[in-house]
Amino acid sequence: GEVLKNLNKFYKRKEIQRLGAENGLDARLFHQAFISFRKYIMESSSVSADLHIILNDICCGFVLVGHVDDLFPFFLRHAKQIFPMLDCMDDLRKISDLRLPPNWYPDARAIQRKIIFHAGPTNSGKTYHAIQRFLSAKSGIYCGPLKLLAHEIFQKSNDANVPCDLVTGEERVFANEDSRQAPHVACTIEMCSTNTPYEVAVIDEIQMIRDPARGWAWTRALLGLCAEEIHVCGEPAAIDLVTELMYTTGEEVEVRNYKRLTPLTVLDYALESLDNLRPGDCIVCFSKNDIYSVSRQIEARGLECAVIYGSLPPGTKLEQAKKFNDPDDPCKILVATDAIGMGLNLCIRRIIFNSIVKPTVNEKGEKEIDSITTSQALQIAGRAGRFGSSFKQGEVTAMHREDLLQLKEILSEAVPPVKAAGLHPTPEQIEMFAYHLPDATLSNLIDIFVSLSQVDGMYFVCNIDDFKFLADMIQHIPLNLRSRYVFCTAPLNRKEPFVCTTLLKFARQFSRNEPLTFDWLCRHTKWPLAAPKNIKELVHLEAVHDVFDLYLWLSYRFMDMFPDAVLVRDIQKKLDDIIQIGVCNITKLIRASQSAAAPGTAEVVSEDSPLSRTQKDARVVSDRHSAASTEPLSIAVEAAELRRAKNLRPSRLGSRQEDLKSYGRGSLANRLLREGLLTQEMLRQLESEWQDQHRNGRYGFGSKRDDQHSSKETRKKRK
């Protein structure tokens, strides 16, 4: 007891905490080191003799001999055993010092660049003017956020007789038949070269410099491109940050402001019913489940609709856009996610927000449901009434009347200024860390790097959760550090198990020095594949398309080990056609999925949004109504999640009185647990609260008190 008391006294001493900080132990590391040190002393049977004597002196109260501060050398020795980096902290701090990113690009600093910022909303012509300068230059590079955008500029440039190459993570297309490099190139922003000199560079969607995951690529392009003129295009909210960043490089920014070319009107009435749809309408949903539900309801009314969402291959998206845009095609309605916000030219008369909440991931990596931001709303709404389309003005509204007021508020607010630019550790920096910490895993190296990194107020270190996820997944596979780093930067969705297990197999075979052949890939993916018969099969085909993308991405980094890129690209095009067939018949697939599902299941496929609002609103289609009304949900769990989602009305759920014990672990509860929105502890607490209410004679949210609480909470969230 005395030992523990004195150890805790040691831990709380400000002087000890200060000494710890001087030796590289920040508050987090100090705490972890102390927990380990305490455990070592309390549980170890072989404490060193000198430490044993010190502890004995302290506990026996020999004031002149022993004091808790005397434990510090032993504590520090123990800390260095569990945190080896403490011995080389100065070197590690220098390596992870990210305070002067402009100095990383000496070629760009060697020339005086002219920066022109084309600022304006969607459909203002800002990118058009930048591209005109790109086309008129002797040489140029276009950097965009999407493959579709890079492909569009590649096409446009070559159509204008300006030879232009295409470079994306998965593809290289040369304008010249002999594969000579053309003077112009269109690329996805991560692929831009900071060593090649150009006359003109265009950086599109510059506001994405604040993106928690990809912002580093815009920072790298802005600071590092070796071009005489840099044309940046994007929201006015990024002007101040770009100006500040360029001040540190000694480069001035010329701002050219643009206004929207066609009027955009926010309507005073909501759609309220799909019976009120008109040709040229686009319904925007924020989950695949809502896409499936809305498209089925539309076709139940005898109307054709095109479907676009993020995980569709680029070719399928373009085909669906072409079908919707074609005046001779009977398809006049589009159902899409916010994937239409950029990269596709669409003839939309009216944007209808099916919901104004979407799942997001916060800075801690936790999933939340929140209202869309002003920036997101403007980007999507701006797709209506595009200049040069058949609709000379755009309209925007909401599906539900109670959403419209908040949508108007969101659209009328100013977009908050972009405050900081993203950074990401380079392979060279991680290699230097590994030299000092040879026994650390790549995931630990990244953690240590981020914890030690120093950035000034204009920058932040991007979220590296995906990188760490892959690093942990392939940690047991013997790879050299550079190869391991490349595998961990592979662009894949970690929610797709098939794609993740494929990366694991790729890495394992790569480590054995066995080439990943076309035949091996066909066996693994069971190619050739048939057209999908239900939604589950369609989702799997999308995952296989992502696997082919992954192979092609790796083939440009390890050509000898992934030798069959040409053959894989051929079957990927065939797979794109198969997926297109599935999307064109999507309502048949939904019907097949629902008829095959267990009775009472409203869900087609578990997707992004834990709550599909449309499923609850789809009373007009009888089979959807019957499915929704018998959906085995816990009313208490549903209420808890709905109250987190702004503007989802409790009254819509009715007053079902299912027992939480019976249904609390049903489809929604399990899904919320999987999504990380609900923990087992929260579930137990909800069960307990529901049972208390049940004993007190209160059910669901039928009571006046609950309604008052809900309305107060809604008002509080809106303030």
UniProtKB/TrEMBL annotation:
The keyword Transit peptide applies. It catalyses: ATP + H2O = ADP + phosphate + H(+). Residues 601-627, 689-719 are annotated as: Disordered. GO terms for biological process: mitochondrial RNA 3'-end processing. Residues 266-434 form the Helicase C-terminal domain. It comes from the Eukaryota. GO terms for cellular component: mitochondrial degradosome. Keywords: ATP-binding, Helicase, Hydrolase, Mitochondrion, Nucleotide-binding, Transit peptide. Its cofactor is Mg(2+); Mn(2+). Its EC number is 3.6.4.13. GO terms for molecular function: ATP binding; hydrolase activity; RNA helicase activity. Belongs to the helicase family. This is ATP-dependent RNA helicase SUPV3L1, mitochondrial. It comes from Rhadina sibilatrix. The lineage of its organism: Eukaryota, Metazoa, Chordata, Craniata, Vertebrata.
